[in-house]
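New here. Your pick:
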Amino acid sequence: MLNQFLADAVEFLPTLLSGLGLTVGITITALLVSVILGLTWALMGMSKFAVVRGISRTVINVVRGIPIIVQLFYIYFVLPELGIRLDAFLAGALGLGIAYSVYQAENFRAGFASVDPSLLEAAQSLGMSEHTILRRVIFPLAIRVSLPPFGNTAIMLLKDSSIASTITVAELTRAGQLLAASTFKNMSIYTLIALLYLLMSLPLTFMVSGLERRFKRK
């Protein structure tokens, strides 16, 4: 059985690795989108204006309450009816980025909330502007708290990138599905897929563990 698995691995890995490249691409793109939007929602949630804070809360609650797969379907299948057409890769990256932006917002919010108010008062007493306080006081301190959960979110996003296969993105899972349908080597193919996801996740897992240990010592 092992010899057969190794033979199948040699045969199928080139196709799966091409799908893996798309998985990495969609994960990185979605992660960037989630960070930009998540930071936006978090900063809006800190606004002086109740309307802005309300918009942030509404967006977070709505996005969090809709399954990711439904969000992808809406972007890929519904938006074209409104004249907005995106290719499968962009639709998948955008949908995943929007879905995960609300979790990034919570990561950033926790980081901002961890900053000692006395430090903000001291910065204000020195005559710093709000922008300078945000850039030189809040962000550096908040990052220390936000980084470990950010890593966990990145791992979850990597695994959920497989959902993009439902809108025909030929990433790792989709490539495996097509191979399995044509060869019926389900055991070998899905074992290889699982191993490849594990190999991608392990470095992130070790990084998150290292960050958590580092910040606990401080």
In short: The radius of gyration is 21 Å.
